[in-house]
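JOB MANIFEST
job_type = single_chain_structure
chain_count = 1
residues = 379
[input]
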Amino acid sequence: MNKNVSGKARRFPSHWRVLPFSDAVRDSSRGNPKIKAGDYKEFGCVPIVDQGQKIFGGFTDDMEAICNCELPTIIFGDHTRAFKFIEQPFALGADGTKVLEPIEELDKKFLYHYLNQLKLKSAGYSRHFKFLKETLIPIPPLQEQKRIATILDKADALRRKRQQAIDLADQFLRSVFLEMFGDPVSNPKGWEKKCISEVANVITGNTPPRSEIDNYGQHLEWIKSDNINGPGHFLTPAKEGLSNIGIRKARVVESGAVLVTCIAGSPDSIGKAAIADRDVSFNQQINALVPSDSVKTEYLYSTILFGKKLIQNASTNSMKGMVSKGKLEKVLLPIPPLRVQEKYSELFRRFLLSSEKMEKSRDQIITLNRALSSEAFTN
């Protein structure tokens, strides 16, 4: 009987060899160049694999940055605990990516599926490779490895198809917006432009004094920029909240506001946006745009989402980047007639309903895949 790092007992079939992680797998990350997040491109010759949830985080044209490893290979996100199976030449993202290669006779797909179903304990946004190194690696006969990998590949193909459908839906939303309104940056349809301050009330967040512990609790979520960087269009749940006392010292907005990252670790992160679908408080890295009667939330959000350069162009030219409240208020946005915005808002809401159904289906498949994977590696 063996234990994985979650402490849960696991019984492998008796005819399988079992080795400590470090005897079966090596970290081949060293010596490879890594691309900083601020240097990612939207398009390029070489995809960048980082620790994010998406297969590729961006692209680069630097052919010398291609990772020196034997393809296919397995990538582990040291902070995110995400595993990826990569089959084409790629460059490594700068932070927290590990290239894993088998030392023993292990089918790479089998190894990937085994690692991917491990329940590594969370250390927050810290390093997790130390926990991975505490695991045991089963080594069945090679033919049995290939059989298991084939079964799990078929199950995972269903998940990938659902995810592809979700990704295509996001591309469809972008296409609908651009067809109706054009690129917000170049404004090819010649819509009237207005300063953000003319169509929304801009509110800068803050941090209630940390020295006063009574400010913090569970009464209201306190949003940080991480909650804006999620894969969806709404704020992700905050890990930290404020008490009734803290709320009185905070900045709070109601559902329907658009929250925008205006101070970030890299210029590329400036201008990321999400819709608040509940009342929230938020920190000073974020400005909230509370729409007036002349602009719909869905249109305002989408204009920033698809025209992020409008916000980034107002940023300082520092390594981190910052857009002050004053500069944000002066950013010019194309503002079409309200009736046209309302038509888009209705399409946006229909898109969300469709996406929610697809995401629910994908999540059900993920749950079934996890159960199948657990069964495949247990006696």
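[summary]
The chain has three domains: 2-140, 141-188+336-379, 192-335.
The longest strand covers residues 216-223.
exit_status = 0
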